[in-house]
Fold this sequence. Notes:
CATH topology of the largest domain: Uracil-DNA Glycosylase, subunit E
CATH class of the largest domain: Alpha Beta
Oligomer: single chain
Amino acid sequence: MHVVTASDFEQWRNAARQCMLSNLAPEDVLWRDGREACPGLFDAFEKEPAPPRANQSHSPTVPRRFMELATYVACHRTPGRWPLLYRLLWRLTHETPHLLDIAADDDVLLAARWEKAVRRDAHKMKAFVRFRRIMEADVEHYIAWHRPDHYVVRLTAPFFADRFSSMNWSILTPDDSVSWNGHALMFGAGAPRSAAPADDQLESLWRTYYGSIFNPVRIKLKAMRREMPRRFWPLLPETTILDDLLQAAPARVQKMQSYAEGWEQSAIDFLPPQRDLNSLRAASSGCRGCPLYAPATQTVFGVGPPNAAIMIVGEQPGDEEDRIGAPFVGPAGQLLNQALVEAGLKREEVYLTNAVKHFKFEARGKRRLHKKPNRREVVSCRAWLESELAAVRPQVLVCLGVTAAQTLAGPMFRLSDQLGKIFATDFCEHTLATYHPAAILRSSPEGAGAKQQQLIADLRRAGAFVRKIN
């Protein structure tokens, strides 16, 4: 058995070339990771690869694609990267020249997975390194500390040299360090976090700038957490204000949309300091957050137990709801009551509310005909719904119709794609969308029956899910 040590790609490349010239099969070579330089009991008896045989005087030719793949896989933290790369090299040159085209091959699949992980880690390093300024003999020097998952310092160093060519800088990581003096890159050993400054006078300016350009309309929390994992947050100055920015984001969005519509206020301006349901209900009666309050009789707030396991959200109150001041008391509410009974649920155990709290209508003589609220009216009123969700914290959230679903799942939501399916939203992990009873009443006799059965089945599914959780 020939034992070979490699710490980086170039060392592996040179050692692999020698092994190939010696015609050593993968099972004849034991690769040792030089980064884990811990002498073994039998290291003194390691064999060097034998001299090249007479019929093998030159290096084998491999596809450029393999060299690119190997460059990234060599930076993966697992010690198994060296034997995997040599095994691929051997198979490419001795068995299957088109091996890399076989995506289902175990070795190819593993190498592709490691390459992807390294590329992602290199991208994270480019995105999340933050320099802090220090003065050395009246010369500015910028130092950053970063903790990558893999050995990506040498991969990313050219990017920083090009991006910050006029600065003198150093990037420290637990495994490696790199410095730039304006002319050349210099690599060294790793360093602890304490070796880098914790703060500098520029960071307060950066936080002010970041807060001013932060766009609350574009917030996607899951994507944000996926792209900026919390383990990087202590290294970034802007994360010290991020929680405050996220908390204020809904109010900023409503303000922006209200101003765009020419409104001076939104529902956020009328939220009470105390956010329990009784305080919210009392405060909502004076809401003037959008023009819908003017022609409506009154605000129609949600009803139900404050600890309800199921919350049902509709679009807006109708004519009878507006006159009485309670949700789902008209024809659509009666149909919903019937569906709840058939689904085995009790109305008094469910929290009922609407995305919009005022009745929007078009007057036709003495009649008031329902008119769908527009996007800005829905967004302006959303603060009340979000506050209800925060107070009740339902286990299952049922959206009746497209307006309610888009209010909570986003404007791209399509009821036809998600009908009856349980999916996650920022407001409830178990959300379900189904038909609104009013839509069933407007349907043809044939279509109404099928939609009503769908509504019953979805309510029954919500009840069964709650029972399963508990």
